Amino acid sequence: MAFADVKRFPRTFWAANAIELFERLAYYGMNIILAIYLTRRVGFDDAAAVAITSVFISSLYLLPIPAGAISDKIGFRNGLFIAFSVLAAGYGILGVFPSKATALAALALVAIGGSFVKPVISGTVKKTSPAGLSKLGFSFFYMIVNVGGFSGKIVAKALRQDLGSWLSRSQFASLQGWVASHVPPFSVTPELAARAAEQTPPMAPGAFVELLKWQGFGMQVICLFSAAMALVALLFTAIAYREPDRAGEPVRSTKQTFADMFRVLGDGKFMAFLVIFAGFDLMFWQLYLSVPFYIVRHISERAPMEWIVAINPGMIILLQMPVAWAVSRMRPLATMALGMGISTAAMLILGLVPTLWGACLAIATFALGEMTFAPRFLDYVSCMAPKGKVGLYLGYAYLRAFIANSAGAPLSAYLVKRYVPEAGLRAPHVMWFTFAAIGAAALVALFLYDRFVGERPAEGEERA
To answer: Which pLDDT band, with edges at 50, 70 and 90, does 311 fall under?
Structure first.
């Protein structure tokens, strides 16, 4: 990669990446604590919280299909205005009104808003990358995604743990009174007393309850931080983002636009391709479905859960470009298979080394697999898209996450409840070995796909 290549990317490319940075700050700050927030602050039980988190994530990755088609029709800039207006409202409601009904409504808004961002920003990256530099463009884009993911988790840890710790010792008596009377838990139960004794070092039950209260308040503040980041992204869209050049694209009616959505379903090779890679996503989303419960229950309530998960994007920030260069000469399917194999090994490490350092090593390993796989996947899909359908195809690219969560969330809910309960005997290795087996099965399916179907020609290479 030469500096001259970087200079060839236009202003809109950099504006899109800056917008993506703010959106990821908002999303990952909230998403890392969502399952715990739904149980401790909103009042859902474990199974319901995992199910809701899964439906939310699934919706966020199914809705880009119509959102991508709509954005192709109305323009990418208009799609971003819709996205961040809705996102700001959703995050704000989630933070200000932490009840069961309002939380569900807020998550619906976040899913709708987020569904426009995904195909629009990745479509902009494709459309604005100079000829011959789309792989570099997507590698840079993916690094920016992870800068946002890393920073969001760092902020989330500070707001969930450190802010409450400071406020509990401050002179803000009215705030302390509000937290005492409005934020659960409100009493010491035998289960809470048992968990207090499990901490490292052990805690008095009363002090443990106080810790949980301030963490609950901190999670509300995280949601408000996400709302603020959505507003910043909205402002940046208005000031800096310009509609990419769409000269030469066919003009389609609304009827044709939505008919195209269903025609893609008839592309058997593409659909099989997405189903196979749902196995990777099923493993990835355990960082947000299973890992938070695993860390706070099996390792320690005071473990910096957000920092541990932030190892994933932190590694990608540091190594994405070198890894992209290292695998640049590999075939696309071989590159993606390598990434999936490394990520499967990370699940095995979680099961074999059930400690704080084992979790850190596993998440670092998973990051190596992810940075090998993800940029090549998006570039490969964008090259499949006919002219004028880049947004639509990139919307369908996220269908794999919908499939992964539809299948993986019920499994995750069962495994967390069965093998990582809040109180009682735990056997987390069974959970992690199960996810590793799914990754291995997806890897075998990919080899069969490569053997009997073969790589699909990149028909859309250099198309915008």
So the answer is: very high
Architecture, CATH, for domain 12-244+255-452: Up-down Bundle (1.20)
Instruction: Name every residue whose Cβ is closer than 8 Å to that of residue 363 and which is 6 or more positions away in sequence.
Output: 287, 291, 308, 309, 311, 312, 346
DSSP assignment letter at 38: I
Query: Tell me, what's the pLDDT at 266?
Result: 75
| Half-sphere exposure of residue 434: CA atoms within 13 angstroms, side-chain side | 16
pLDDT at 459 over 50: no
Q: What is the DSSP string of 213-240?
A: HHHHHHHHHHHHHHHHHHHHHHHHHHHH
Residues 309-321 have a mean pLDDT of 86
In angstroms, rounded to a whole number, what is the distance separating the alpha carbons of residues 147 and 103? 27
Residue 436, token pair as written in the block: 């590793």
In angstroms, how far is CA 431 from the centroid of its own chain?
A: 21
Alpha-carbon span 320 to 368, nearest angstrom:
9
pLDDT digits (tens, 9 = 90+) for 85-117: 999 999 999 999 999 999 999 999 999 999 899
Query: 16 and 79 in contact (C-beta within 8 Å)?
Result: no
Asked whether the whole model's pTM tops 0.70, one would answer yes
Residue type present at position 201 = P
401: which residues sit within 8 A by CB, 6+ positions away? 57, 58, 60, 61, 278, 281, 285
CB 23 within 8 A of CB 80: no
Cα(342)–Cα(43) distance, rounded to whole angstroms? 37
In angstroms, the CA 137 to CA 130 distance is 8
The segment with the largest mean pLDDT, out of 315-324, 387-396, 448-457, is: 315-324
Count of residues in the chain? 464
The answer to whether 392 touches 65, Cβ cutoff 8 Å, is yes
Please list, in sequence order, all residues whose beta carbon lies within 8 angstroms of the beta carbon of residue 6, skipping any fewer than 6 positions away: none
Delimit the domains of the chain by residue range. 12-244+255-452
Mapped onto helix, strand or coil, the DSSP state of residue 175 is helix
Residue 457: per-residue pLDDT: 44
The pLDDT score that the predictor gives to residue 123 is 85
Q: Give the separation between CA 90 and CA 8, rounded to whole angstroms.
A: 37
On the CB side of 244, CA atoms within 13 Å amount to 31
